[in-house]
Structures are given as C-alpha cells and as structure tokens.
Amino acid sequence: MLVKRLLVVVISLAIGFGLTVAAVYAPFIADTTLEEYGIYYTFFTTVAFACALAIWLDKFMGTEMLPK
Hints:
Layout: H1 2-25, H2 34-37, H3 39-61
Helix pairs in contact: 1-3
C-alpha cells in the first residue's frame, strides 16, 4: 500500500510539473518562460495541479489516502 501511495505522489507531481510547464510556455496564455514565471509560482502551481490529480489517482488506484 505504501508503494502505491508513493507512486500516486510521484505521478501527480510529475504530471503537475508537466502541466505547469505546458501552461507557462503556451503562447496563447502567457508566452513566458519558467525563469520569468518564478520558482515560487512554479512550485505552487505544480502543487495545485498535483493535488487535483492526486484526488483522481487516489480513486482509480485504490490507495485510500482520502477518507470516504
């Protein structure tokens, strides 16, 4: 169970960072770079995306981290 939970965290952070990079570099949204966006904004945007993804991954992977 611990391995599944760690996998949920790693997958959600990786996808969250990928979504952050995609949103920052998208020309129709910001047309900026990660250096201009800033490390703190990048971190908190990644965490926000990761939390949203972790909820779905918790459900589909059956890790039961969240209460029912």
